[in-house]
# Entry
Amino acid sequence: MFSRLRSDVQCILDRDPAARSTWEVLTCYPGLHAVVLHRRAHWFWTHGFKWSGRFVSHIARWLTGIEIHPGAKLGERVFFDHAMGVVVGETAEIGDGCTIYQGVTLGGTSLYKGAKRHPTLGRDVVVGAGAKVLGGFTVGDGAKVGSNAVVTKPVPAGATAVGNPARIIQADGDAKREDAASKMGFSAYGVTQNDDPLSLAMRGLIDNASSQEHQIALLWQAVATLSEERASGGESCVPPDAARDASFEAAKLNQLVDR
# Structure
């Protein structure tokens, strides 16, 4: 029990720069209190003491502002950061190393008792503030759910879900993912620098248009060179207004998209 508590405290010290000491975490972090109380409530629930489990869960909600159903399953090193208003449903499962911020709902869309109604979070998932993950699907290992996203379908491992309804941004290859992770470190609130799919699409179109204009300019330069060699003193066949230099300002347009 004490080794598990030490692990919970250490994960908070690792992920929250505002945490100054073990004593501060033990006495002033409601996310830690909610996890500890949930373990007692879950023990009651799984050993047939349903009312006792619900009552401990109710007390934990009153003390911490975090509502975790006693039937939910929590892994190791789960961190509820701030976490006021978090709701975790009965059949939800939260994997090791997950971080969940305030206002998050891990809810269900089905009324069938006994069914898997709530989501399963894999290892090291980050769920940003205000996000709603609704349904009995899986959010893969290392995935991120952006703040205020509404997710109603599975999220692949390593991907990012943003928006309402959530759009899934696939992660790059394994090598790029590992390189980015080492540079970026922990992604607070499920936010990365390139998590807006509309901006990504616009930047891709801008870069593609810039590349095409450059290729067209090179073609006109080649046509002009051949024309001059074959003209034997005559007039060039290249139109005088042919664009021989690329003038597409891709960098400026990308800056506008990023604003």
User: Anything to note?
Assistant: DSSP finds seven helices and 15 strands in the chain. The mean pLDDT is 81.
